Amino acid sequence: MFLLVHEDREYLRGPGEELQTDLGVLTVPEDAAPGDTLETHLGTTFHVRELRGPDLFDHLDRTGAPMMPRDIGLVVGHTGAAAGDRVLDAGTGTGILSAYLGRIGADVTTYERDPEFAEQARTNMEVAGVADRVDVRTGDLAVEVDELIAEIDDGDTAPFDLLTLDTEDAPTIVRRAPELLAPGGFLSVYSPFVEHTREVVEATRDADLSDVKTFETIQRRMQFDDRGSRPDTAGVGHTGYLTFGRHDF
Ligand SMILES: C[S@@+](CC[C@H](N)C(=O)[O-])C[C@H]1O[C@@H](n2cnc3c(N)ncnc32)[C@H](O)[C@@H]1O
């Protein structure tokens, strides 16, 4: 899949697919490549762009509310997620976090309890080009966790380097984090409300995780115009809370 871009208009299309808009009609050639320029029958040009993380955030079909790119940046920054890391994620939702982690080369196992959401997430991973790195499993991680831990204990599955949670029941799974994580592995939990965050922090204490830190995530976009420069007055820069912890031994 590529993005076809003309000024501020962007469309997702694959090789052989047609784009029909008021700017004209074009068919994406089978051998199209990023950087190519395509022309509609009315002579309007579109640039072919490879899909990268922010494009996935803007264009993948959404189910569960996706994590914001800035929050994903904090997850990667605070956990050092890297190529080759084994990540356990829940819930998949739209799959934005999973797709970003797949794009940096991590191997992600992600659980989504809603079968239709899981199916959409599998399609999204194909579009993102990470279906070989992101295994979307239909299931409730809170239910599946015993079986996963048994597989780790039996040596059938390696423990995970990173556990990322974006679910209401995250505290339940946080209590099992030491059984899921490799020594030195990280936990990251996204919470939309401060009450939930407190429950998560209490669960990290029950689980004896170290280096527990919680951040409110706020980002202010800047405006630069003829009158001056200042933070954007539209919208609030708050998205939620991120809690990190580490399994030492
Ligand atoms: C906010 S969305 C996650 C968005 C995702 N982080 C992203 O970046 O696109 C939460 C999703 O978790 C799923 N979910 C909630 N609890 C779950 C659980 N225990 N196991 C698996 N999925 C769960 C919900 O169905 C929902 O789709």
TrEMBL record:
Cited InterPro entries: rRNA_Ade_Mease_Trfase_CS, SAM-dependent_MTases_sf, TRM61_C, tRNA_MeTrfase_Gcd14
Gene Ontology cellular-component annotations: tRNA (m1A) methyltransferase complex
Residue ranges of every copy of the tRNA (adenine(58)-N(1))-methyltransferase catalytic subunit TRM61 C-terminal domain listed in the record: 69-222
Keywords: Methyltransferase, S-adenosyl-L-methionine, Transferase, tRNA processing
Single GO molecular function: rRNA (adenine-N6,N6-)-dimethyltransferase activity
Enzyme superclass (EC): transferase
Domain of life (superkingdom): Archaea
Signal peptide: none
Keyword Cell division: no
Matching Gene3D superfamilies: Vaccinia Virus protein VP39
EC numbers for this chain: 2.1.1.219, 2.1.1.220
GO biological processes: tRNA methylation
PANTHER family: TRNA (ADENINE(58)-N(1))-METHYLTRANSFERASE, TRNA (ADENINE(58)-N(1))-METHYLTRANSFERASE, MITOCHONDRIAL
Protein name per Swiss-Prot or TrEMBL: tRNA (Adenine57-N1/adenine58-N1)-methyltransferase catalytic subunit
